[in-house]
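Exam prep: given the inputs below (a chain plus NAP), describe the expected output before reading on.
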Amino acid sequence: MNETIGWIGLGNMGYPMARNLLKAGYALNVYNRTASKADGLVNEGATLANSIQELCSESDVVITMLSDDQAVKGVFLGEGGLLNSKATGKLFINMGTVSPKTSYELEEMSSAVGARFLEAPVSGSVKPAEDGALLILVGGEEDSFRAAQPLFEKLGKLSLWLGAVGAGSSAKLAINYFLALTLEGLAETVLFAKKNGIKAEDMLRIVNEGACGSAITKLKTSGIVAGSFPAAFALKHMAKDLRLAREQGVDFPLSQPLVDTYNKALEKGLGEKDVMAIITYLETSATE
Ligand code: NAP
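Solution:
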């Protein structure tokens, strides 16, 4: 609890996660590309850093929760980035979803400047992030994992050390592959039922009350019924995760059609909507 935490990335996930550390009593420095997104946390006691370098020099552990590989590389490697800061002795933890290759590179470069690196992508969306109930999938040195465990306990209901760097991102891509399949299956099921005169709310009740119901089908039900998809997990991030899963070797009968569907939904401008907006794409493409 004596450590000072630096947090970079206050999007849909980063904000509630950082807030949990603040509520747990950690001293928290925050930085976000769009600085105004830090206002709420600053009002609650966090300190806004004016630059990544300032945040790094004032923190013992730096956690990043950013969109994708490009954003994370920019924050680590860019001019004024973490690895061009006073990084010796720091522990860097990247919790966003990136490729295993990016994680290896960041570990190597962190080590070259005397810092430690963990990858710790998460499973679970905004509500589990708010509730401190994420699943945290960790790759890296076991000692670093043990050092970070007290922090992970404030962010998640379970943190799993899976092995060397690369293992955490690989597990994350695998669980999101299942999520993408599940959401596409749910969307197709509801649309198939509707085509034959069954209302969406009735079909969803059948799904949720039966053996196929799950936390995710229940979570997505109200949005499907209302036809409203404000982003909890943006569709563009799922398209990114499927691209990374393909690069990592996922290759089964459903893999390419799944990637194609999410990409086409992205092309139709649904990227900023919640991932469940895949149903909007499937419905409109069926009538085109
Ligand atoms: P988000 O709401 O889109 O937030 C993205 C964050 O990254 C923002 O802070 C954004 O800054 C920052 N960012 C983007 N590009 C940047 C750049 N080039 N330089 C600096 N900062 C940049 O994303 P999220 O939903 O919180 O997701 C974050 C990560 O967690 C993603 O990898 C996602 O796949 C993963 N994830 C998400 C969920 C979920 O349910 N949402 C669940 C599990 C895992 P600005 O505010 O300035 O745009």
